Structures are given as C-alpha cells and as structure tokens.
Amino acid sequence: MTATASRELWLVRHGETPASRDRRLAGWTNVPLTEEGERQALALRPRLAGERFESVWSSDLERALRTARLAWGEPRQDQRLREMSFGELEGRSWDSLLKAEQDALVRFSGFTAPGGESFEALRARVLSLVEPLDPGRHLLFTHGGVVRLLSREAGEDSFVPTGTLLVVDWSQRRLVSRTDAAGEASRGLPGASAGND
Fold first, then answer.
1. Which of 69, 93, 133, 185 would you call most buried, defined as having the most Cβ atoms within 10 angstroms of its Cβ?
2. Which of 35, 51, 62, 83 is catalytic?
3. pTM of the model
4. Cα distance between residue 126 and residue 147, in whole Å
C-alpha cells in the first residue's frame, strides 16, 4: 500500500463530564463538560495545533462537540460517532448495574442494552462513517465506547480515560501513539497502556 493510500485516525475521547467523573453511563444523554473536562480539551489544543487533517468530525452530543471546539475549532457533526445507546441503563451508576451487565460491558461484546443498542450495532454504525473516509489523516472527537471499538480493531483493547488522544494507522490497523489527558504518551505497542483506567 502506498503512503498516499494510507488512512490515519486521530481519536479523541471527550473531556470529563459529571457522568464520567461519577462513573455513570451517559450514552446518548447530553451532559456537559466539567471544568476539568474543559481543561482537558484545552490541553489538547497545542498537540493538535499545526496538524493538517483531511477532515475533522465530532459526535453531535454536547460533550464531544464542546471538546472539539475547545481543542480544535468547528468540526463536522455526525450522529454515527455517538456513544453506544445504553437505553434503560443511561444515568445508572456502575455500581448499580447487575454483575452480568458489568461483565458484558467489560468484555465489550455480546451485549444489548435494554431499550438501547448492541455492540454489533454500534460497530456497524461507527464503521459506516470510518470505512469510506478518503486516504489521509482524520480527526474524530467522540466517546469512550467508540474509541475502544476503533482501537480494538487496531489491536489495542483498553478503556481510555477522558481527554485521551489515540492515533491509529487505520490502513495497517495499528496503534501509532496514545496521549492521555495528563500529556503522558506511549508509542507503537498495542496494549502498552492496558493498565490505565
């Protein structure tokens, strides 16, 4: 594959929200960024400054859109970059979930949220945006489930904290780099950061 045909995805998980801070499932519920979430988004700006992208996208949900505007500028909004719809589980705390629900969410497969979306439907929705992207670099402001889904496709399967930037060589399905909200980076090795929350 030639360099001109390669695709690189720069994946940003939105900044902290009251839901993420309090370990609650937000899904499609619109929640704002906390002050810390805004700080995380602003901290990405120097990392993204001067970079060139073929396209810049964001979920249409407030937390991702606000992160995009603080870290970059105005993105194209698309509902396909939304978090998984957790249906009846939205707003629930992690500790209030049944053990089977927690286990399925940790496995990140074989689960359909009651009144919500399955992992398979989430994957189909997200890939319907990503797969047709032109060669080049694309910046996507999105959610933890979407980042995990796309990074899993590249051999990295870990939960990423809010404010994290992952760069994925989508053509080669490999992780290029990861920068968490504190600015700490790891390069290249899928799973190198699996111990992080």
1. 133
2. 83
3. 0.89
4. 10
